[in-house]
Automatic annotation (TrEMBL):
Record-linked InterPro entries: Glyco_trans_1, Glycosyltransferase_grp1
Superkingdom in the source lineage: Archaea
CDD domains cross-referenced by the UniProt entry: GT4_PimA-like
Domain named Glycosyl transferase family: residues: 199-334
MF term (GO), any: glycosyltransferase activity
Protein name: Glycosyl transferase family 1 domain-containing protein
PANTHER family linked: SULFOQUINOVOSYL TRANSFERASE SQD2 (PTHR45947:SF3)
Organism: Ferroplasma acidiphilum
Pfam families tied to this protein: Glycos_transf_1
Amino acid sequence: MNLEFAGGGEANARDIAELFVRQGYDVTLFGAGIPKGYETKAGKYSFNYVPDAFTFDIMATGPVLKFSHILSMGLIGIYTYNRIYEKIKDFDVYYFVSPTLLFRNVGYRLMKEGKTVVLGNHGTYFEVLDMYGFASKAYSKILTTMIFHKLLKNKMKFYIHVQNKYQAQYYEKIKCNRSYIREIPYNNVKFSGYKCLDNDNFSVVYLGRLMESKGVDMLLELEKKADINLHIIGKGPYMEKLQQMKNKNTVIHGYVSNAEKIKLLAESDVMIVPSINESLSISAIEGLASGLYLIVSSTSMGPRYIVRQDNIFGVAVPRNPKNFIKEIERIKIIKERSKTDFYSEKMLRREIAGKMFDANVVDKELVDLFNDAIKDSKR
């Protein structure tokens, strides 16, 4: 998508582009379009930014993207790959944000020419695989065949940047070279910029877009609990409905400044991440940077991956309001027993998470991946 869409994948694309500008590369980012109604003025970036780069492809036009941006994004390049190739062929290193037909068709030509190609996995592909319930296995097989069969059959060489171990297991299962798979939970959260406070009150926070895929239905249920101090940070189509239902202990902050966000997180104890599916969850990592205990949906690949890195980070529960409320109440009791021990655990949680997820750590890992990929392509 264009960067103005401001989703997690777009944020990662922007941050990765800026990272490699700092490494001395001349970076160009191509935006594949934006759903009609989302258009806003582009910001200023340290890299070359080309929004709406493929308007000759009907799948990259606003009306089609608005109808179903998850599916249409995956179909960009199905017929126009030669024109797209001609537009981008003069670069040395390529990073595709997610596995799509654009990656298969254009990436294949680039690999044949010996260009360095890295495949990212920022959301869409794995969200599509998980959104069809019992049909997901069949759908997964179809997508895998469509996108990867030709590449693997012809033994094309490309490095794979996965966000979590579940994505890594998928690529191992379809017989990708394990030595080319790197698990890097990429994000831009610098832990030194966040605070971890010893608070008297017990507070729960939600940080993210107020939309259906983020599990806002769970917030509607939590708002009915008068004894839970709930802070909701973010905006979206469910804002009005949440405001109508909120109780006296719920505060809906909407969009806030970065400084205000850091303050609200520091003053909280628990973060809930009820999203249906995410490939990572920047919000969850921001929660860990503030020492918060995470309660996440077990259906959501990325948040589930995060909490299972260490028991102290939190827990994944079935996506049901009763499960979230039960876990919130359990943590509240723990804090009431000993605020000193509770704060010590918050600090320990932040310390352990920083060694895994801090932006400085993952930046280095991603630079190492690119350096290895470039060296490999020159052999």
